[in-house]
Amino acid sequence: MAARRGHRDGWTVAAVALAVRLLVVGWAWGRFPPTADGTYYHQLASRLAAGQGYTWLWPDGAVTYAAHYPVGYPGAVAAVYRLFGPMPELAMVLNALVGALGAVAIHQLVVGFGRRRLALVGGLAVAFHPGLVGYTPALMTEGVAASLVACAAWGAAAVRATATGRRRWLLLVLCGLLLGVATLVRPQCLLLAPLLGAVAWGSRRGLARALVASAVVTAVALAVCAPWTARNCNRMGRCALVSVNGGWNLLIGTDPAGKGGWAPLKTPTECREVFDEAGKDACFERAAWRSIRAAPGPWLALVPYKLSVTFDYCGAPGWYLHEANPQAFGPKAKLALGVAETVYERLVLLLAALALWPRRIGPGRRRGWRGWRGWRGWRGWLLRALVVLAVGLALSRHGWLAHGAVTAALCLRRPAMLRAPPLYGAVLASLLTVTAIHAVFFGAGRYQLLVLPMLCALAALGVGRCRSHGRDLVRRVRRRSE
Q: If you ran DSSP here, which 8-state letter would residue 55 be given?
């Protein structure tokens, strides 16, 4: 009966998430053309759908092979364009479908805790998330990548919950396939493969098995990308896993004018006469490392700004809609969506932090601080301090510090992460990878989208923790009144 209700809740989350996103697509239909990077994704998908390959048509009529942008998202959009025609609105429908799947994945991830109502809270939190829902009309990769990562985390949890050996390995391969597709959409997702692989198997049969599972997931993800990597070696004159834009992004991240965010690329003198796409990216990469080696201090000083730009405020939906059509989505609408999104995200972050507060054991609940499970001494006090710090910072403008406190609390709360439920490891992996990547390159609010579904899952546990402590408080008050 409980399993049936869980499946019914999953379908409810899917229906609600899809309905909300399709309503946004219906409102945006014909009003918001592709803009920013979405322009290039649309054009590349249109060329793929027309059988012209992953190529770029230049104003002078020249056609060259392209790999600057990852192929995964344009490839998926091209499949839709091939069937129904090159209409950007169809890509929005695809975004809605993938976004709804991400909400279901978060629901199933929390179901593993045996908390049906909390799982419903987590799934609906993703279904109604203003940032994720508002980004549905954007022909961009971050929302799709976030849903794929959530599905991979769901796969990791399914591996841990499965007792049969053969089925566990099949699910492990499925997790690798999902991360391989996510890597084609957003190459940084490859860093999650070894982490989720280890978390998926856990330490039930020892650390060695966890390392083997990590290697399997990583190998499968790389195998998914291998055909495209071979194409790049053949067509681009340079072997790149997915795309050739790492040098561009690294060079942008060294520019102090960007203050940690995007800034117009300043082409070095030695790269001005390099017109080959892969060769130019390699030239930019050499220039970036030369700049970092010459002045490592100023480059490192940009890290807090990069993380601040990424985690303080997302604002991606309002930015995209305003850029696409300022008349249909003016400054007031952009501000209103930004406020709603920020309040929602900070509430999720606050609840996610509260989920890490140590639990009491039932019989020992009258023993005061000694009743906390394994959290006596300095580690327990440090964990509580980190949670309180994260809650306080979540209510301030320094969102990146709040995310850092949650990450530190996760590391401390689950020192044996391989034995912890996969949800904790998946949240920690997503936070660590996004933080590390954008500390090196440059930050932007839309990059925060990758961690939003995972934080919603943790926030659902925070709701349960608040209810538990609330009941304890009521019982204490009743005892004293008696």
A: E
Query: Which token pair is 135?
Result: 């980004």
Residue 236: burial class (beta carbons within 10 Å; 0-12, 13-18, 19+) = buried
Count CA atoms closer than 13 A to 244's CA, side-chain side. Answer: 24
pTM, to two decimals:
0.92
Q: What would you report as the CA-atom Rg of the chain, rounded to the nearest whole angstrom?
A: 23
d(CA 118, CA 160): 20
Reported as a single tens digit per residue, the pLDDT across 468-477 is: 766 666 666 6
Reduce the DSSP state of residue 70 to 3 states and report it. coil
Name the residue ranges covered by the structural domains of the chain. Answer: 2-481
Q: Which two tokens stand for residue 93?
A: 């429908």
Q: What is the mean pLDDT of each run of 10 residues along the chain (482 residues)?
A: 66 96 96 95 96 91 92 97 95 97 95 84 96 96 96 92 81 95 96 91 69 93 97 91 94 92 90 90 95 94 96 94 96 95 96 84 40 57 89 92 94 67 91 96 94 96 80 64 64
398-457: pLDDT as tens digits: 999 999 999 999 988 655 566 778 899 999 999 999 999 999 999 999 999 999 999 999
Q: Is 328 helix (H, G, I), strand (E, B) or coil?
A: coil
Q: What share of the chain is helix, strand, coil (3-state, %, to 5)?
A: 75, 0, 25
137 contacts 320 by C-beta, under 8 angstroms:
yes
Q: Which residues of 199-219 are buried (b: 16+ CB within 10 A; e: fewer)?
A: bbbbeeeeeeebebbbebbbb
Percent residues over pLDDT 70 in the chain = 89
Structure letter (DSSP) for residue 135: T
Q: Read off the pLDDT of residues 12-33 as tens digits, 9 standing for 90 and up.
A: 999 999 999 999 999 999 999 9
Q: Report residue 37 as tokens.
A: 């990077």
CA distances from 113 to 173, 292, 363 (A): 23, 46, 21
- What phi and psi values does residue 120 have, to the nearest 5 degrees? -65, -40
DSSP 169-229: HHHHHHHHHHHHHHHHH-GGGGGHHHHHHHHHHTTTT-HHHHHHHHHHHHHHHHHHHHHHH
Question: Residue 106 and residue 102: Cα distance in Å, rounded?
Answer: 6
Element (H, E) at 79: helix 72-84
Say how far apart CA 233 and CA 251 lie, in whole Å: 23
Exposure on the CB side of residue 124, measured as CA atoms within 13 A: 10
Helix crossing, 2-28 with 88-111: angle to 10°? Answer: 160
Q: Per DSSP, what are the bridge partners of residue 360?
A: 372
Distance of CA 460 to the CA centre of its chain: 17
Report the distance separating Cα 407 and Cα 356, nearest Å.
10
